[in-house]
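Comment thread on ticket #2218

A.B. wrote:
> Attaching the input chain for the structure job we discussed in standup.
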Amino acid sequence: MEAATTPALGEVTVDLAAVILAVTEGSPRVLTVQGEADAEWAGEAGRRWVAERTGMQLGYVEQLYTFGDAGRDPRERAAGARVLSVAYLALVREQAFEAAGATWRDVYELLPWEDRRGGEPEVLAQAIEPALSRWWLAAGDEPTASTTTLDTAGGSPRERAEVAFGLGDLGWDSQRVLERYELLYEAGLVGEAGRDAGEPERGGHAQARLGKAMALDHRRILATALGRVRGKLSYRPVVFELLPEQFTLSALQRVVEALAGLRLHKQNFRRLVDRAGLVEPTGVQAHTARGRPAELFCFRREVLRERPAPGVGLPRSGR
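C.D. wrote:
> Ran it. Output below, let me know if you need it in another format.
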């Protein structure tokens, strides 16, 4: 995640954050790099900024969200100006670059409970569920105020936890990424919670397994970005921004699985892609060291004119 700061505007400072996502060898990755930029991070200005800082050329860019919770920045807590962050989402193919202090990080090392490609992650049953159970028992069964604006806000702690994490008989909704992170923050189970409150870490064993804290509220911004991308898989062909011009159907499936955090049935996925008319064969085959050559495909751009929501599509919930 790349961030920059503009000069203070009266009592407000505006930070600019670019969440740059890629998928490499089946792993979703986020670029983390610090730097400065001009006040305008949008459109071509944003692309120039990232190109200057990392040498990368961005394709797909959209504004993500403006983050402005009071006290979210230590400068504000130290009697400084109110700090707002305008975040943008960019999708790229991972590539080498030269930028001091910049590195790619695995998204699921930062949000480990979101990766269900190998089944339910151990951290959910062994750390998150027990810790959340203790939290909601201590909080009682009354509805509580929540920082989230999602549809479970205002429910009891137990209800909100069960819906967010698909506990009991409820199914897992891959798009509730931000809701899950904010619930863990509220329950004091991620390192940012104690740090922001100026208190010792409260999560103990659970907190140690929930990924390393990021600066400021950057994990919240990352969770927002991942949830946005997962939602768009169903109605926008954003996945092709992360693939080369020509690709195998297996490579396409691995990228979708990496973003969704879910394992997909091979034949069902291919039927879904075929019915959606998203790709077309190139007539070229990719030769591998083992196995039969695989046919290469490319994104079929005509689909953008044929219907308003040409996405891959994913199940909204499941165990």
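A.B. wrote:
> Thanks. Noting for the ticket: The two ends are 30 Å apart (CA to CA).
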